[in-house]
Protein 1
Amino acid sequence: MYKDFQNYLRKELDAIYEAGLAKEERIIVSPQGAVIKLDNGKELLNFCANNYLGLSNHPRLKQAATKAFETHGYGMSSVRFICGTTDLHKKLEKKIAEFFGTEDTILYAACFDANGGLFEPLLTEEDALISDALNHASIIDGVRLCKAQRFIYSNGDMNELEEQLKKTQNLRFRVIATDGVFSMDGNVAPVNKIVELANKYNAMVMVDESHSAGVVGETGRGVTELYNCRGQVEMLTGTLGKAFGGAIGGFTTGKKEIIEMLRQRSRPYLFSNSLPPMVVAAGIEMFNMMSETNALQDKLHNNVKYFMDQIQKVGFDVKPTQSAIVAVMLYDAKVASEMAKKLSDEGIYVTGFSYPVVPKGQARIRVQLSAAHEFEHIDKCVKSFEKVGKEMGVLKK
Ligand SMILES: *Cc1c(COP(=O)(O)O)cnc(C)c1O
C-alpha cells in the first residue's frame, strides 16, 4: 500500500531539496543563550533565538521549576477541566491578566493553540474576520477553522482595513485580527489606528503579542503599552515560548466573557493536555521578575539601538524596527544565503530569508537581539558582518 505514496513523497521531498528550500536542524548541546555549543564542538554567538529577555536559562526560572517539580510533580495527565488545573495554573492566569491590564486569561499548550481555538467558539457565518495579510500561520489557521466570513487587508494598510470595515457593516460582529510585531521586518502593527477604526466602525480587535510581549513598550507590556491603549483591545494572545522564558505555553487574555466562553468551547483547551506545573511555576516567577524591575527591557532596548547604529555605520541597509528584530537587507536571495553561511563560519548564527518567505528582491538576514547579549557580542557580530560584507562587495559607500 505504501509504495506509491512513498514514491510520491520522495519526489516532492527531492523537489524541496533541489529548490534550496529545505529546513535543516542544527544540533545544540548547550542551554539556549548568547553563546551556544553545537554537537560538532563549535561555539556560535546566537543572534537568531526568540530569547529576547535572555530568560531561557535563567537561574530564578530554573529554581522555580525545580521547586514545583518537587511540590506538584512532573505531568498533569489531564486536560484542564477534568483534573488538570492546579493552584499554579490559576495563579499564572492571573499574573498574565495583571501584566497586560486585562480582565481574565486562559492558558493553552502553545500560542498556536490559542490562535487555533480563538475564533471558532466566538463567531459564526453571520460575522466577519478581518485579517492582516502578513499574520502568523496560527492566526491564519484559526481564521480558517472559524465559519465567519474572511476579509484581508495588506500589511498595516489602514485604508484597506477601513474599506473592509465599510464592506462588512451589514454583518453581525466584526473582529480585526493582527500580529503585534511582524516577524520578517520587525515592524509593529499600528494598533492605535486599528483601535480608532474599530471604534468608528463598531468592530473588536485581536492582537497576537507573541513577538511583542516582554519587548515592545517601555516596560515590555507589548503594543497596547506602546500605543497607550491598554484595556482597549478585546483579545490578546501570546506565547511563553519567546521572551517569557522560552519553554512552552500560550494564552489568550482579554474581556471576561470571551475567556469564559473559551473555557466552555475552545477545542485546543478542551481536548489537549494541561501545561506541566514546572513550566507554569517558572512562568509565575518570570512575571514576578517583570514586576520587580525593568532592567532586562532596558538592556534589550539599548542592545537593539546599539546594533542598529553600528550595523548602519559599517554600510548595511536595515529596515526600521520597533522590536528586537532587525532585517539586514541584502535584496538578492543568493547573497543572503551565502552571507548567512559565511557568518556562521565566522561564529555568528543568523538566518537568511528570501522568497517565498519575504517578497522577491527583498532577501535579508534577520538578526534577533537579546538582553543576554553584551556589547562585546554585538561588536563581534557587526565586525563579522563587515568582514563578510567587504569580501562579498555588498557594503554601501
Ligand atoms: C511564535 C508565534 C506563535 C506560536 O507560538 P507558540 O507558543 O510557539 O505556538 C504564534 N503567533 C505568533 C505571532 C508567533 O510569532
Protein 2
Amino acid sequence: MRVGVELISCLSLAIGALGAAQSNVPWPAIPKPQHADSPNGPVHVYPSSVRKGLSSDFVNGSSGNALVFQSVGDTYTLDYGSDVAGKPIFHVQVAEGNPQIEVKYTEAFPGLLKPEGDGPFAFANGLAATFRVETFNITKTGDFTGYFIQGSQRWQSIKLISGKKLVIKRAGFVSSVDQSSLNSMPGYFASSNSTYTDIWALGPRTQQLACYPPESQSSTWEITSKGAYIRGQKPATTARVVNLSNYTLSFETLIDRGGTGWRVDTEIDAIQATGPIFVLTSEYPSGSFANIDTTLLPPNTLILGRGWSLQNQTSLPGYVLDKFPLKFNVTEKTWHTIRTESPGDDTYTVYLDDQRIAHFNISSYGLADPNPYIPGGVYKSFAFGPWQDQAAYVRNVNATLSTGENVYSNPMTSNDVLIEYGVQTNSQYTCSDSGKRDRFSWLGDRLISARTVMVASQQGEYVWGPAEEAFSRQVGSGQIPINTLFSPLDAEGTLIRTTNVDPLIVDYEFDFMQVIYDYWVRSGNDTFLEKAWPRMVMTTSYALARSLDQKTQLFGAPYGSAGTPLSGEKGQALGPANTVSMIIGLERMAEMARFVGDDDAAAFYQTQAQLSRTAIDTLLWDETAGYYAATVGGTGYDLMDIAQVLLAGIGSEQRQASFVEKLSTLQVPAGYINGTRFFDTPGVVDAYYMSFLLEGLAATKRTKLAQDLLDATWAPMVHRDRNYTGGYWEYISTDGTYPGLDLFTGMSHFWGSYPTVFLSEYALGIRPTKPGYTTFLFAPLPDFKTEWVHGRVPTPSGLIYAAWGYNKQGKVVLEITAPAGLQGTFVPPFSGRYSVGSQQGLSGNHTIAGGATVVIVEE
Ligand SMILES: *[C@@H]1O[C@H](CO)[C@@H](O)[C@H](O)[C@H]1NC(C)=O
Ligand SMILES: *[C@@H]1O[C@H](CO)[C@@H](O)[C@H](O)[C@H]1NC(C)=O
Ligand SMILES: *[C@@H]1O[C@H](CO)[C@@H](O)[C@H](O)[C@H]1NC(C)=O
Ligand SMILES: *[C@@H]1O[C@H](CO)[C@@H](O)[C@H](O)[C@H]1NC(C)=O
Ligand SMILES: *[C@@H]1O[C@H](CO)[C@@H](O)[C@H](O)[C@H]1NC(C)=O
Ligand SMILES: *[C@@H]1O[C@H](CO)[C@@H](O)[C@H](O)[C@H]1NC(C)=O
Ligand SMILES: *[C@@H]1O[C@H](CO)[C@@H](O)[C@H](O)[C@H]1NC(C)=O
Ligand SMILES: *[C@@H]1O[C@H](CO)[C@@H](O)[C@H](O)[C@H]1NC(C)=O
Ligand SMILES: *[C@@H]1O[C@H](CO)[C@@H](O)[C@H](O)[C@H]1NC(C)=O
Ligand SMILES: *[C@@H]1O[C@H](CO)[C@@H](O)[C@H](O)[C@H]1NC(C)=O
Ligand SMILES: *[C@@H]1O[C@H](CO)[C@@H](O)[C@H](O)[C@H]1NC(C)=O
C-alpha cells in the first residue's frame, strides 16, 4: 500500500541535504517525507479536549480526564480537534445500576445541540451508522465498543440517561481510516502564507477520511443461525426479485429491543425512496432505553412512513404518514410473523401473527410521490432495517404472488445474504463521497479527487482501485453505475443496481475517462490502461449513445450533473457545461487510443470532439450578449459554462474574455453561484463547481481571479473555529461563514479538493506533460501573491523538489531538483531575462534536466 514511500526514502538518500545550502533563498529547506510506521492492529484515537457539559470551549490538558457521571443528565463534550472516524470505544471503570448512555456525533459543533446530531444519513446503507445518535447499555466494566462505524466527526457528546454511576476512564474511536501522519506522504506543499499550507493539507486528510482499503468498512448486518440480526439503520434492499406486483411479503421477526422495520416496493439504491416504511414497536419492557422518542414511536404501534426516513434531513425528505396502535402487546425476544400484502393498487394490508393491524392506500396521504424528473429507480423491491437503537432478527422471508407462486424464499441464515442486500464488508479499494454521508462510491466525484490522490499521497490504489470497482459493475450496454455500494455484489445484484441508475448523470461516464487519463499521466501505469481499454471503449460508446444529440452535436442527455437542471426537459440539447465534459472525455480517449494503438478509435473520438467544439462555438455563442448561451437559441449561462469553456479552450480568446467578464454577475463573498438556470440547493457555493472554475482560471493564467477564488471558497475551511474538521467541505454558505448545507454538509468531502492540485500544479507549478512525468512543466502562475512556496511532487521515478519566492532585490528566484531521466520545461512566471546557474541573459522557456539541482534567478 505504501510502495511510494519506500521509493522515496531511497530517492531522498540520493538527493542528500537538499535545500540546506540555500541560505540566500527566501524559503526554508524542503523537508523530506517522514518514515511511515505501519500500525500493528487497530489504531485508537482520543479527544484533545474533554469537558463536562455541552460546550465547544477547549479545555487545555483535559484530554486524559476520566468522564464521571454521577446522575442522570450528566453530559460530557469530547472534541477531537479535527475529523476522526471509526467505532466508538469506551473504557469503562465503574458501571452501577445498569447505566445507559446516549452518544451523539457531529462534524460541526452545532450538531450536538440537536436531538439527531448532524444526521440521520438515510441516503445509502454505506457500511456505517445511519443515525448520529446511538444509545448503549453499559452492563459491565471493561472495554465497550459500538457496532457501527461512525463515518466522520470532530465532536461527540456522552450523556447518562439511566443508571446510578458510570465512570469512563477514556472514550475514543477504533479508527476505521488511515491515521498515518501527513508528513509521511510523498507529496507536500507549504507557503509563507500558512493559509495555503493548510488548504493543501485538507487534500491528503480528506483522502484518508473518504478512501478505504479492502476489508476496512465493516458489514452492517450480522448473520446468525437464528437469522439476520439487524440493528437500527437504513433498510437495505434485495435485488433478487424486483417489481413484484400483487404479492405478499412474509417473514418472521424477533425483536431484540425496541422494534423491527421493513419496506416494500421501494427503489433499489436509487435517488428516490417512495415505497412505504414500516416500523413496528414493541411494548418497551422494563430495561428499554430511557430515551425512546415515544411521540414518534409509541409502544405497540405500526408506524407508517415514506421518503428517506421518518425524519427530514435537508434535501432528503422523510414523512410519517400514519400510526396504527395495536390493541395488544408486541413482545420482545419472541418470534412473530409479519405479512404485508401489496396487491399493486397502492393499498397495503399488514398482518402481525395473522391479525390484521393496518390497511391503507398510500397515495391517499398525498405525500412523497416520486419525483417524475429524476430518472432511474425503475427497479423496486423490499428491504429490512429497524429504526434508531432498535434491533431485530429477520428469518424465513417469503414473497408469494397472488396466484400462490412462491418467488422468493430465504431463511436469512447464510452469509450470502450480506452480498444480496449490499451490506457486506468492502472487498475492494473504494472512495466515498464523504466520510459521513452519501457513502456511495460516486463516479464523477473522482474527476477532481483522483488528481488530489496522485499529487498528495500517490496512493494510486485509490484511483485504480475504485476504477476497477466501477468496471466490475459495468453492464452489457457499457454503462458503469454513477454510484454504487461499497459492498461486494453478485452478478444479478450488479445488473439490477447498475441499470437502476441509468441514465442518471451520464456526463460522469465521460468524466471517468478523464479520471483514467489523469491517473495514467501522473502514474505512468500503462498496464492499467491497457487492461481497462476495452471497457473504456464500451463506456464511451454507452455515454455517446445516451447523450449525444445528433442534430446539434451537443450533449443532449437528460439530467447531466454539470450545471444541468434536474428538472430540465428530457433530451434537450444543453450548453457548454455538459458538452465540454463529453469533449474532454473524447479527446482524452483519443490520446489514450493512440497509445494503445487503436488509431481508428482515436480518429473517431477526435472527429466527434471537434464537431462538438464547433457546435458550441457556432450554435451557442450570442454575439450581442457576449456569452455562450445555456441552450440553443436560449438565454442565460452559469458559472459551469464559463469554467468548462475555459477548461476546454472553446472559441477565441476574445470570446473567452467576454464570457469571463460575466463571472462578476454571479459573484458572492464565498465564490460564485448559479446563473439563470442552474439547479442546486439555492444559496450555497459548491466546492465541486468552484474546483472546475479554479482550474479553468489557472489554465488560462488568470491568476488574480484564481487566487481570489481560492481565498473566497477555501480559506474559510481552514479557519480554526468550532466547525473546522481538517477536511474539505462539500458546500459553503454564500457569505463564506458556515458549511453550505448546514449540518448535512459533508465536511470531509473529496469532490471539491482541487486546491491541493492547484497549489502543487499551478502555484508551485509542476505539471506532467507526458505519462509518468517523463516530460513536465515547471510553470508557476505569474503574480501569485505570496512570499514563497515550496513542495514535493511525487512521480513514478521519485520526487520532484521545487520552490520559488522573492529574493531581497524583489526578484523571483526558483529552484528545482527532479529525478534523473525526467525532463522539465521551465516557463518563466515573468517576462524579462533570467539566469540559470552561470548562464545569464536567458529568456523564454528553458529545458531542465533531472538529476541535479537547478537554481533560476530573475535578472
Ligand atoms: C496548552 O498548554 C500547554 C502547556 O501549558 C501549552 O504549551 C499549549 O500552548 C496550550 N495549548 C493551547 C491550545 O492553549
Ligand atoms: C403490556 O405491556 C405493558 C408494558 O410492558 C405491561 O405493563 C402490560 O402488563 C402488558 N400487557 C399485557 C396484556 O401483557
Ligand atoms: C440493558 O441491560 C440490562 C441488564 O442486562 C437489561 O436488563 C436490559 O434489558 C438491557 N436493555 C436493552 C435496551 O438492551
Ligand atoms: C418533512 O418536511 C415536509 C415538507 O416540509 C413536511 O411535509 C413533513 O411533514 C416533514 N416530515 C417530518 C417527519 O417532519
Ligand atoms: C391480485 O390478484 C387477485 C387474485 O389473483 C385478483 O383478484 C386481484 O384483482 C389482483 N389485484 C390487482 C390489483 O390486480
Ligand atoms: C418460507 O420460507 C421458508 C424458508 O425460506 C421456507 O422453508 C418455507 O417453505 C416458506 N414458506 C412458504 C409458505 O413459502
Ligand atoms: C497499475 O495498476 C494495477 C491495477 O490495474 C495495479 O495493480 C498496479 O499496482 C499499478 N502499478 C503501479 C506501478 O502503480
Ligand atoms: C440560483 O438558483 C436558484 C434556484 O433555481 C434561484 O432561486 C436563484 O435566484 C439563482 N441565483 C442566481 C444568482 O441566479
Ligand atoms: C494569507 O492568505 C490569506 C487568504 O488569502 C489572506 O487573507 C492573508 O492576508 C494572507 N496573509 C499574508 C500574510 O499575506
Ligand atoms: C458552524 O456551522 C453551523 C452549522 O452549519 C453554523 O450554524 C454556524 O454558524 C457555523 N459557525 C460557527 C462558528 O459555529
Ligand atoms: C513555453 O512552454 C509553454 C508550455 O508548454 C508553451 O505554451 C509556450 O508556447 C512555450 N513558449 C515558447 C516561447 O516556446
